[in-house]
Amino acid sequence: MRIEWQIGFWAAALALLVLFLWVFSGVLLPFAAAFLIAYLLHPIADRLQSLGMNRLAATLLILFGGLTILALILTLIVPVLSHQFAEFVRALPDLLNNLQKLMVSAGGKVLHDYAGPLLQRFGVGTGVPDVRASLGELAGQAASWTASFLNSLVTHGFALISLASVVVVTPVVAFYMLLDYQKMISEVDNLVPPRHRPVVRQIAKEIDQAMAGFLRGQSLVCLFLGVWYSLGLSLVGLNFGLLIGITGGFLSFIPYVGSLIALVVAAIVAIVQGWPHWNLLAMAMGVVIVGQLLEANILSPKLVGDRVGVHPVWLIFALLAFGSLFGFTGLIIAVPVAAAAGVILRYAVRRYRGSNLYSSLPELHVAAETGLLAKKAADQQKIIEDR
User: How does pLDDT run across 216-229, given as a tens digit for each residue?
Assistant: First the structure.
């Protein structure tokens, strides 16, 4: 088959896949979540099989254990978390209003006591009232935007997810996918032409390593950070510590984003709650910073490793792009697609560098220069002969 036909075939297949995801994105959520669950848990099922348990019993055991853990979470954590979330939304206007007053007061004091004399030495007016007004306006706009965002999240956020389909359909689909996981992989492998199977299997192995390293490893990192942040912030007495900690741990799936949000929100709450003392702020910042240091120096190198090959910028772009195109389903498939695209792109670069197109470029350049020199020499010889 000519290379043009191969490119056209895969481009058409990619276009059909994107169209399918876009058309059926509203109903694909439980199936995408089920496939992700089956992918994450199938090594456990394989391990149980190697210990002598058949596949059906291993799948039932995993499903029962997962549902038990989910029930415990729904019973013990979700009520407290929902209560803190409702209290946080209710207290947000007062929190931001107090923060605005503190910002204006502190900014005015700094300008009046420190920056004012320095500016006067250079013959520049302090403009303290104008700066205070600007700070107050900026804080007010930030408060209004944050309140509107949270209100939209509470009002419309749950409309993105059909809870009935996720709760009911996802466990059933995940059970069958986990049960038949090896058969599905075998069927896909049989569809690959035999002459291409070594290359396809190698690419699939690299994709599996990237996805497994990131999904399983980063999930454990998120779990640890969620527990660390929520327990630490709650123990130091920070209001909404459980909510901030679990949210920061969950968003740590995107590198640096979860820790940054936990740091900023914890700092805001600690400043308003502990003012004018700084003890609470120092302890809250200590919890977040220690968690980030553990994640960067111990957890990520051990659990995620360097073999993932998913750059944070590429991951953030994939999450934003797929979330915008396909909604919540896009957020679930963004990471596997980003990992697969990275592996395929690196394979394409390797093939390009090993091809004649890449290796023959210097030779073509030398040949062109040689031909040009030969042409100049011939022209000069002709001129001499004409003379």
Answer: 788 888 889 999 99
CA 285, chain centre distance (Å): 23
**Cis-peptide into 276, omega within 30 deg:** yes
**Which range of residues forms the domain containing residue 138?**
28-156+164-191
Tell me, yes or no, whether 208 lies in a domain: no
What is the number of domains present in the chain? 1
How far apart CA 273 and CA 303 sit, in angstroms, is 36
Is 286 within 8 Å of 301 (Cβ atoms)?
no
Q: Is residue 48 part of a domain?
A: yes
Q: Angle, nearest 10°, between helix axes 78-110 and 257-274?
A: 70
DSSP label at residue 306: S
Residue-wise pLDDT tens digits, 326-353? 777 777 788 788 888 888 888 888 877 8
> Tokens at residue 276, please?
């004018």
Rounded distance, CA 357 to CA 52, Å? 53
141, 165 in Cβ contact below 8 A?
A: no
If you search the block for the tokens 């303290």, which residue do you land on? 128
Which residue in 281, 251, 249 sits closest to 266, CA to CA?
281
Residue 386 burial (10 A CB sphere; 0-12, 13-18, 19+)? exposed
If we measure between CA atoms, which residue out of 154, 144, 149, 152 comes closest to residue 93? Answer: 144
Residue 249 to residue 256: CA distance in whole angstroms: 11
Report which DSSP code applies to 161.
Answer: S
In this structure, is residue 78 part of a structural domain?
Answer: yes
**pLDDT per residue over 262-298, tens digit each?**
888 888 888 888 877 888 889 999 999 998 888 888 8
Within 236-360, residue ranges assigned H as helices are 241-251, 257-274, 279-294, 312-326, 328-353, 356-359
Q: Is residue 304 part of a domain?
A: no
What distance in Å separates the CA atoms of residue 79 and residue 10, rounded to the nearest whole number? 48
